[in-house]
């Protein structure tokens, strides 16, 4: 098995991030949008882990734990918003929430 | 006794304040009591003060009373102070005396007017301002009175403010005199910056010391003051406001626009005679203005149909005589004519007021006629006034003063034949138009019925003024009648004495010159009798004939001055105002506002409310920043 180098990890992180970002831009369902944000967060976490492995330091994994905690909190808030969203707009389409335009 | 001087202007001022404060709580009787009473008391005090001044003249033949210092800034310290000398005595006596008679007359003349209290309010304020004007010891206080009488003149011309025409006339008077006043205040600035004071007596002494005769600055100062005098006294070229000022009530015309305020210009020039002595060229301008005015206004008076307008033009013309006298250094003759003119012109206007009232507001003399038997008291007094205006020899005061001015215009150092002929022609025209009024109003057929007769409060002033119009001239007899001239002796204490030094002085002073004037007056009266009594129809037809009609219209309209000013000033200014309605200057601030608005619109267009667009922009921004950081 070939060595998993830093580059592999970072490229994968970048691909994951790009997928998440593309989903964020293209998908309109609020749940999917939240999922895309999770993908992007995990891409960032992967980059931390890869970098930690490269330098032989634990900091990368510690940071990933932080990211996980933050992601959990974010999901809690995000889902709460999604419920309120659904209640007030009767939909989950983010484009319906355009009342605050100039 | 002299220390009561301050009471003379203070009493009418107090009357004004009382009327303002009590206004609606006063009945007509109370208003009349305060309005006329305050001026009556002022006249009494004036008699006491001036009597004691004449009986025992104070040192220096002048009494100076300083009440307090008005303001004191960097060496500029005008006082509220009064200065009484022979000139101001003459003016004060006429203002309070004639003023009281006119107030008395007004209590009856205005009795059915809803603005009764307002009328007396303005009238009292006027008398107070006028007294401040003539008693002021410095030019700034004089200017306060000057503007005060201007304000009252405006308020009283447009007294019946429900007719827009009256308000227009008031505005016109205010704006036209303002032209002169602006010149005058510029003159005051010039005098102060050059000589460092505005106290009249020190100022005159300083001018005499600092300025050479006929130096440029003296002429400029004199001409600027003359500008103010010309505006206030309705002389060419600022005379156009006075005929329209007749829109006011008749007592106003009598008091303000005949007897007192319009002679303020004469007072100003007489008061600053030292300056005008220095500026000989400016004095020549005064004389020319006088001659031109007296001729122009005389011919205009000859063709008027409105009784009060005819009298207004005659006022302009008579003040022209006063200016002529001042211009040829006959200061005292000018003051003399001011006094006699105040008597007979107030009489004429008060008489006209009764006539117009009696005929239910009819102003057209061609619709009057035959009033001799209907209003005998008015007939006699008005005729005396007209005779005085025409300078009927020996028995009227106008003869003595006008004779003196005409003689001065030839016989003084600055006199010449032009002035002399001008004033002789003016005298002839004066007799024509003054008796024209008498013939047309009192003789012939009756066209309008008399609906009201005057009572004692209107008749007494008429009688008193008629008596004054007869005896007022006896205080200064010409040399060829006898050496009786107390007025001249009195005025000598304050003004330069009359000098008979010109080329024709000997003739001018002689009985022969007087005989010429007497002849002119009699011929004038005779001709006016023929023209407007037996030949009335043909005179009328002549005036209506195609060849003469334009000339008559030209004179009636006051020699086209109104037309000219309308074209030269009024219309261009109105055009500019119209063009400027779009506010060209506003384009700059409006452009700035527009730019801000456009920027706001552009920025707010980005606020779509679409979450995914925001995310895209944020992502794009991140990529951009990264690209810049990485590829740099």
Q: What keywords describe this structure?
A:
heterodimer; A: 102 residues; mainly alpha; Helix Hairpins; B: 632 residues; two-stranded antiparallel ribbon; globular
Q: Could you characterize what this model shows?
A:
The complex is a heterodimer of chains A (102) and B (632). The mean pLDDT of chain A is 88. Chain A has helices spanning 6-26, 30-55, 59-89. Chain A starts with 5 loop residues before the first helix and ends in a 13-residue tail after the last helix. With 102 residues, chain A is an all-alpha fold. The radius of gyration of chain B is 30 Å and the shape is globular. With 632 residues, chain B is an all-alpha fold. Chain B is 71% helix and 2% strand. Chain B has a two-stranded antiparallel ribbon. Chain B is built from 27 helices and two strands. The chains are: A mainly alpha (102), B mainly alpha (632). The interface between A and B is medium-sized, with 13 and 13 residues.
What's the shape of chain B?
globular
Helix count, DSSP H or I runs of 4 or more residues of chain A = 3
- What is the number of helices of chain B? 27
| N to C succession of SSEs of chain A | HHH
Largest sheet of chain B: 2 strands, antiparallel
Roughly what percent helix of chain B?
over 70%
Structural class of chain A: mainly alpha
- Give the helix level of chain A as a range of percent: over 70%
CATH topology of chain A: Helix Hairpins
CATH architecture annotation of chain A: Orthogonal Bundle
Low-confidence stretches of chain B: none
Number of β-strand runs of chain A: 0
Q: In total, how many beta strands of chain B?
A: 2
Structural class of chain B: mainly alpha
Uncertain parts of chain A: none
State the name of the first-level CATH class of chain A.
Mainly Alpha
């Amino acid at each position: 098995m070939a060595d998993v180098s830093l580059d592999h990890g970072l490229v994968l992180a970048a691909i994951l991030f790009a997928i998440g970002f593309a989903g964020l831009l293209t998908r309109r369902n609020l749940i999917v949008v939240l999922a895309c944000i999770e993908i992007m967060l995990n891409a960032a976490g992967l980059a931390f882990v890869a970098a930690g492995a490269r330098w032989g330091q634990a900091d990368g994994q510690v940071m990933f734990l932080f990211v996980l905690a933050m992601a959990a909190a974010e999901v809690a808030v995000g889902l709460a918003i999604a419920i309120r969203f659904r209640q007030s707009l009767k939909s989950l389409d983010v484009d319906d929430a355009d009342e605050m335009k100039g | 006794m002299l220390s009561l001087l301050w009471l003379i202007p203070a009493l009418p001022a107090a009357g004004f304040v009382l009327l303002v404060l009590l206004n609606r709580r006063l009945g007509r009787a109370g208003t009349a009591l305060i309005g006329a009473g305050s001026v009556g008391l002022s006249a009494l005090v004036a008699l006491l003060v001036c009597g004691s001044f004449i009986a025992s003249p104070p040192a220096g033949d002048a009494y100076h009373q300083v009440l307090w210092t008005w303001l004191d800034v960097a060496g500029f310290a005008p006082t509220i102070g009064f200065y009484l000398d022979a000139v101001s005595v003459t003016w004060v006596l006429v203002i309070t005396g004639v003023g009281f008679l006119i107030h008395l007359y007004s209590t009856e003349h205005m009795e059915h007017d809803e603005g009764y209290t307002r009328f007396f309010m303005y009238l009292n304020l006027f008398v107070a301002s006028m007294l401040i004007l003539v008693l002021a010891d410095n030019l700034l206080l004089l200017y306060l009175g000057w503007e005060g009488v201007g304000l009252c003149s405006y308020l009283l011309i447009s007294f019946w403010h429900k007719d827009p025409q009256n308000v227009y006339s008031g505005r016109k008077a205010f704006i036209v005199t303002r032209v002169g006043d602006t010149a005058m205040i510029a003159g005051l600035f010039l005098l102060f910056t050059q000589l460092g004071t505005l106290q009249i007596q020190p100022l005159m002494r300083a001018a005499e010391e600092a300025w050479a005769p006929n130096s440029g600055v003296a002429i400029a100062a004199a001409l600027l003051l003359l500008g103010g005098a010309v505006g206030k006294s309705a002389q060419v070229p600022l005379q156009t406001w006075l005929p329209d000022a007749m829109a006011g009530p008749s007592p106003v015309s009598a008091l303000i626009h005949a007897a007192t305020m319009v002679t303020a210009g004469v007072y100003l020039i007489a008061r600053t005679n030292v300056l005008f002595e220095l500026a000989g060229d400016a004095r020549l301008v005064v004389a020319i203005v006088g001659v031109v005015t007296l001729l122009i206004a005389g011919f205009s008076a000859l063709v008027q149909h409105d009784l009060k307008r005819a009298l207004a033009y005659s006022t302009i013309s008579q003040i022209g005589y006063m200016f002529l006298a001042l211009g040829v250094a006959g200061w005292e003759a000018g003051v003399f004519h001011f006094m006699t003119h105040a008597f007979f012109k107030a009489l004429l206007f008060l008489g006209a007021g009764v006539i117009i009232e009696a005929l239910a507001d009819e102003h057209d003399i061609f619709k009057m006629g035959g009033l001799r038997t209907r209003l005998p008291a008015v007939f006699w007094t008005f005729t005396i006034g007209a005779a005085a205006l025409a300078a009927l020899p020996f028995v009227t005061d106008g003869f003595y003063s006008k004779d003196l001015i005409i003689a001065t215009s030839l016989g003084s150092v600055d006199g010449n034949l032009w002035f002399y002929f001008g004033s002789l022609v003016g005298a002839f025209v004066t007799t024509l138009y003054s008796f024209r009024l008498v013939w047309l109003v009192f003789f012939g057929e009756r066209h309008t019925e008399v609906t009201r007769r005057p009572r004692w409060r209107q008749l007494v002033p008429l009688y008193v003024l008629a008596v004054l119009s007869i005896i007022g001239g006896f205080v200064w007899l010409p040399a060829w009648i006898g050496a009786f001239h107390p007025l001249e002796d009195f005025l000598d204490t304050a003004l330069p004495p009359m000098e008979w030094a010109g080329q024709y002085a000997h003739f001018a002073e002689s009985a022969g010159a007087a005989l010429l004037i007497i002849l002119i007056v009699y011929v004038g009266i005779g001709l006016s009798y023929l023209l407007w009594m037996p030949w009335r129809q043909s005179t009328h037809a002549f005036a209506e004939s195609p060849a003469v009609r334009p000339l008559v219209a030209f004179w009636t309209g006051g020699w086209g001055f109104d037309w000219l000013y309308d074209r030269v000033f009024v219309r261009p200014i109105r055009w500019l105002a119209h063009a400027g309605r779009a506010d060209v200057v506003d384009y700059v601030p409006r452009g700035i506002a527009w730019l801000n608005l456009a920027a706001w619109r552009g920025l707010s267009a980005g606020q779509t409310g679409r979450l995914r667009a925001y995310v895209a922009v944020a992502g794009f921004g991140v990529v951009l920043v990264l690209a810049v950081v990485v590829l740099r």
